[in-house]
Amino acid sequence: MPAGYTSGTTGHPKGAQITSDNLLPLLAQFTTGSEWAEWRAADVSLVVMPLFYVGGSLYALAGLYMGAHNVVLREVLPQQILDAIDCYRVTKMFVVPAVILFLLQCTGVRETDLSSLQLVFYGASSIPVELLRNALDVFKCTSTTGSKT
Fold first, then answer.
1. pTM > 0.85: yes or no
2. Which of 41, 51, 89, 99 is the most exposed place for a label (fewest CB within 10 A)?
């Protein structure tokens, strides 16, 4: 049985078993008309959050489940993330609010071609309103969605 790690509301990592009975209904949400269901096989998904973290692994599996192309980065390096969005024409990505902040602080972020980016999922913590406004202004996505996981 696969396991992921989550800090939940405590901030302390803990293992969480993920069964097929848990995983398949979550993945099915990508096809049921929710805002997550805007996936297409032509999408390019940037996987940069750790795969040992349930949010990162579920997001990566969602892209695979929907037949999208996954671009996997080994580390969270803001300039490398921006370069990957531009180079691979990334349409979707999942990051935590701190990574959004780091991306916005990169020199040249406003000159980077981010026009392919359609959706930014964020989670694991709340996002300050001003950071969200700045992200919407810079990324110019059709949608940005988040949840506290």
1. no
2. 41
